[in-house]
Amino acid sequence: MAKQFKPETLCVQAGWSPKKGEPRVVPIYQSTTFKYETSEQMARLFDLEESGYFYTRLQNPTNDVVAAKIAALEGGVAAMLTSSGQAANMYAVFNICQAGDHFVSSSCIYGGTYNLFGVTMKKLGIDVTFIDPDATEEEISAAFRPNTKALFGETVSNPTLEVLDIEKFARIAHSHGVPLIVDNTFPTPINCRPFEWGADIVVHSTTKYMDGHATSVGGAIVDSGRFDWDAHADKFPGLCTPDESYHGLTYTKAFGPMAYITKATAQLMRDLGSIQSPQNAFLLNLGLETLHLRVPRHCQNAQAVAEFLDGCQKVAWVNYSGLPGNKYHELAMKYMPGGSCGVVTFGLKGGREVAIKFMDSLKLGAIVTHVADVRTCVLHPASHTHRQLTDEQLLAAGVRPDLIRFSVGVENIDDILDDIKQALDQVKP
User: Fold this and answer.
1) What pLDDT is stored for residue 390 in this prediction?
2) How far apart are the C-alpha atoms of 140 and 45, rounded to whole Å?
3) What is the end-to-end Cα distance of the chain in Å, rounded?
4) What secondary structure does DSSP assign to 12-23, as a single string?
5) Helix (H, G, I), strand (E, B), or coil: what is residue 331?
6) Which residue, 72, 102, 240, 300, could crosslink 127 as a Cys pair with Cβ 3.0–4.6 Å?
7) In degrees, to the nearest 5, what angle opens at C-alpha 236 toward C-alphas 112 and 96?
8) Is the backbone peptide bond immediately before 381 cis, with ω within 30 degrees of 0?
9) What are the angstrom distances between the C-alpha of 295 and each of 16, 154, 317, 412?
10) Are 102 and 148 in contact (CB under 8 A)?
11) Is the distance from CB of 186 to CB of 343 less than 8 angstroms?
12) DSSP symbols for 179-232
């Protein structure tokens, strides 16, 4: 049996094993198309009878190397890269849902994903029910319908930092014969591997910690290969019945554990085309090589920031699961004993205006519409990403009007804390 490498080794080595005379570093295959000697060779590729490359919209060697690395890190059988995290979420659900279907989602998810599910996908005829992730199993199960095809949640939600009880969600999903899809962007597989707790599909915005340097927008979908689609064939005809666009091929019969990712590539990427560019995949791979070094530093720094804020008189509240008194501390210790992520949320006494003054006074921390890279950055959702909402609507969405999302970078912690202190000196509650 082949040796199972640890995550640190997989970050550096997985996906690319060059042969004699080949580049040590994965090359960028900056080509839209690939040459074959005969028409028959190309025909077999189009019929999914052979694996290979013919057009980058479907597959590209650089992308496949990086996808294989992410699959290895998550412990999955296969992965595919997408042009963004939003595309990954869309494809993950759309791969098993069609018009007339329904799925259930945690309400504590990224605002863009909430809109994708609650507005855009409804226009495609796919309905969603949002549930409180902290509700009981019975309450969440009550949201399921005969046409429900999936359950969705975020390991650590953005920006409100709720920690998902993955085992509970997996039990609920499987009791209804559907897969659990988990967005693992914030913890990354360095801190949490949802497949080990029963999840079936994992998605990522690779734009965040995986890239880590704010250079490349991207996403990924990883399949555990463990969900038995054929056992619930009536729910998943797209995987379990013949696809006429490929001469009647049935994905589960032709590809076994690879059925879900193969369908997502052969159908959705073929028709919708949200492919990640090989250049971005190359940059993502550079980020992955140091992911195991950066994530612990992010968490170490965030823990120090959270503890400082928790003891500060000008701070009204702090939300970070690493704090012993946090509502999600016990769940975080179960699923992410090495740390959750580098994002801390908090509010200042005096509310929204004081929060804005604090942010404007930061010198090291930059105000940007981004999160989770090496540089410390900050965002006030009520003034920025959620500014169209009233205070009442903000609270309904789980975002307090005074919430500051502070993404702690990998700079020296003394410099980060000094910047927070001097900014706090500028505000009067």
Assistant:
1) 67
2) 43
3) 62
4) HHTT----TTS-
5) helix
6) 102
7) 15
8) no
9) 23, 18, 25, 14
10) yes
11) yes
12) -EEEE-TTTHHHH--GGGGT-SEEEEETTTTTT-SS----EEEEE-S---SGGG
Residue 338 has φ and ψ, to the nearest 5°, of: -85, 0
Cα separation values, 397 from 113, 203, 307, 339, 417, Å: 12, 22, 26, 26, 30
In three-state secondary structure terms, 428 is: coil
CA distances from 102 to 86, 105, 148, 172, 185 (A): 19, 10, 4, 15, 24
Taking residue 136's Cβ as centre, other Cβ atoms within 10 Å add up to 11
Alpha carbons within 13 angstroms on the beta-carbon side of residue 148 total 25
Phi, psi of 105 (to 5 degrees): -135, 145
160: nearest Cα among 389, 338, 397: 397
List the beta bridge partners of residue 181.
Answer: 152, 201
For residue 415, what are the contacts with CB-CB under 8 A and spacing of at least 6?
364
- Taking only the tens place, the pLDDT of each residue in 175-227 is 999 999 999 999 999 999 999 999 999 999 999 999 999 999 999 999 999 99
d(CA 345, CA 328): 14
Q: Which of 120, 187, 118 is nearest to 154 (CA)?
A: 187
Backbone phi, psi, residue 82, to 5°: -125, 170
> What pLDDT was estimated at residue 1?
41
- Pairing type for strands 366-367 and 404-407 reads unpaired
327 by DSSP, 3-state: which?
coil
The model carries a pTM of: 0.94
How far is 87 from 408, CA to CA, in rounded Å? 26
Residues recorded for the chain: 429
- Angstrom distance (rounded) from CA 138 to CA 90: 27
From residue 190, alpha-carbon distances to 120, 198, 273, 309 in Å are 32, 17, 29, 26
312-340: string of b/e by CB count within 10 Å (b at 16+)? beebbebbbbbbeebebbebbeebbeebb
Tokens of 198: 């029963």
Cα 346 to Cα 329: distance, rounded to the nearest angstrom: 16
Residues of the chain with pLDDT under 50: 1
Tokens at 397, concatenated: 């969405």
In degrees and rounded to multiples of 5, residue 16 shows phi and psi of -130, 115
